[in-house]
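Student: I would love a firmer grasp of how sequence relates to backbone shape in proteins. Thank you; the sequence and its tokens follow:
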Amino acid sequence: MWHANQLIFHGVVILLVGFVCGAPLGSAVVRGKEESVRAWRVAHSSLIMGGVLLLAIAGVVSHLRLSPFWLTFLVWAFAASTYLFAVVLPLAARYGHRGLTSELPHLNRVIYVGNIVGAIGLLIGLLIFLWGAYGAL
């Protein structure tokens, strides 16, 4: 139950951040700044999907066959990764960096590292999730 509650709480927090990113998205649309619209759309939609992902996992986590250690690891891999994206995606949108390469300026490098670490965390969480789902067969 603790694992599901953690995923629900953190999923709702990420959803809130995603919805808040909708305000600058609307502002960018009104101003007609296409690059800014794209960046805020990525932040808005990705964070909402991340929050929904955590809520979906919360609904099935009790069916997984994992030890308490691996269940806890799964929760924190997903939660930490989505929080990292909740920082770097709005940061990228606000300052106009994509973080797809490690090129200068330094802020772009920070966003790049955040994207890479966040993606690795989600991959690790997904592999643990797959392992637990397979064990439940």
